[in-house]
Design goal:
CATH architecture: Alpha-Beta Barrel
Shape: globular
Strand order of the largest sheet: 1-2-3-4-5-6-7-8
CATH topology: TIM Barrel
CATH class: Alpha Beta
Number of helices: 14
Order of helices and strands: EHEHHEHHHEHEHEHHEHHEHH
Largest sheet: 8 strands, parallel, barrel
Structural class: alpha/beta
């Protein structure tokens, strides 16, 4: 079953210094955090060693659960022009840099995404993902693809095919409920995936009607688990059925919540997520 030691996703709080996120995360009931490479690089530029960052998190009762993300891993990414979305930032997130960062900070894994709108062939993606996995394996780390409905790897079926074709023991998937439901991915397929290939899970909710601009919605319109339209109990139950013991992260991008102090914004995140998990397991028992 999914772990109920909850992880706070880092990307929604990129505007806040990492050291300022730790106490609110702990106080809201989280036991781990995902970090972005820039979180680590920024503090290292200020003279703080990665080991000291991890120690500061440990002092707050928090573990580093993953580095999110490497986004410049396909051959087409490396030659992308500045007209690609967020090209300057994403080109800096190479597997080599991100894997080394994850190793320095003591993260167990790293996320792999396609956000530049490049649609690779299966062979091309599998070879490139295998390269990321090999780099990660050299440090005892796992790598997991997070599919995005507005990217070149748009759904669970596509991501799972790449993981299978890559054939790496440390390669797997990140499952985000927003991406899962907005991509029309299948709960039946999800239930068929071996649990040890589901490395991380992110939970959130959304209104019934999808926005015409999915990128804008994913970055501004997510909701607390259980307050929207997604079949989150079904999503959790399907993952539980695989035997996955992946960590469960709460990731909510919301323009409304972004206006609040972090402690106020995340106060109900852990409780909402745990309520959904409890509901899923109650329904599964009955």
């Amino acid at each position: 079953m999914l772990s109920t030691d909850l992880v706070l996703s880092g990307p929604p709080f990129v505007h806040l210094p990492l050291l300022d996120r730790m106490a609110p995360a702990r106080d809201a009931g989280f036991t781990g955090m995902s970090l972005m490479p820039g979180d680590v690089w920024g503090l290292e530029r200020q003279g703080m060693a990665a080991s000291d960052i991890a120690a500061r998190m440990a002092d707050h009762g928090l573990s580093v659960m993953e580095i999110d993300c490497t986004a410049c891993w396909l051959p087409a990414h490396r030659v992308a022009g500045d007209d690609a979305p967020m090209a300057t930032l994403l080109r800096s997130l190479t597997p080599e840099r991100v894997v080394e960062t994850a190793a320095r900070i003591g993260a167990p894994s790293l996320t792999v995404v396609e956000m530049m709108g490049m649609t690779p062939s299966l062979d091309e993606a599998a070879e490139a993902f295998a390269h990321v996995c090999d780099l990660a394996a050299g440090h005892g780390l796992r790598a997991h693809i997070e599919f995005l409905p507005f990217g070149g790897i748009p759904d669970l079926a596509t991501a799972w095919a790449i993981v299978q074709a890559a054939g790496c023991a440390n390669g797997g998937l990140t499952l985000d409920s927003w991406h899962f439901f907005r991509s029309g991915s299948s709960l039946e397929l999800l239930r068929s995936i071996p649990g040890d290939r589901i490395h991380t899970v992110q939970i959130n909710d959304a209104p019934t009607r999808a926005s015409d601009d999915l990128m804008r919605e994913t970055m501004n319109g997510r909701m607390l688990p259980g307050t929207g339209s997604f079949d989150l109990p079904g999503f959790i139950a399907a993952i539980d059925a695989t035997g996955s013991t992946a960590p469960l992260s709460v990731e909510i991008f919301s323009s409304e919540l972004a206006q609040q102090p972090m402690a106020d914004a995340i106060r109900d995140w852990a409780g909402s997520a745990l309520s959904v998990v409890a509901q899923a397991r109650k329904e599964a028992r009955t």
